[in-house]
Amino acid sequence: MIQLEFFETSDFQQLINWIETPELLLQWGGPAFDFPLTVNQLEKYIENANCDNSDTLVYKVIDKETEAVIGHISLGKIDRKNRSARIGKVLVGNENVRGKGIGEQMIKEILQIAFDDLCLHRISLGVYDFNVPAISCYEKVGFVKEGLLRDAAKNGDEYWSSYEMSILEKEWMERDGQWWVSPPPR
User: Number of structural domains, the chain?
Assistant: First the structure.
């Protein structure tokens, strides 16, 4: 099991250590960050995050058993008027826990914050088309592919395409009972 806690300056070095290649940085942070990832870039990233009415919430992911930081995730572009937001910066950083369902737990936790705490209606995300494990994870949780953005990002001499995916409040509520609430007594 995991828990999300706000990402702080004391967490910067761990994240920097996880982002070892320009390709991983592009997958994690998109074109908004330059390789190598630096403290200065991360200071700007969280400058206006995690405040009341902020449009960005940035979290570290903690393994409840070991209390180790094992990942990172954010909920950005929070639009309270249109009740929408975007998941981004998803990373299971600790390689020892990859492939064990941590990503799915992270997405469920951030969706619980988005739908249950913030009362949002629509959550979207983007994922590169070659990232099959991530796509599978998002689909398990209930995300639907909306379309393919062809050649959306340039990495060296090649272009990467990405899927746009979303989940709506109604879809979350239909699945929510399966994940978070015990069945009613008979």
Answer: 1
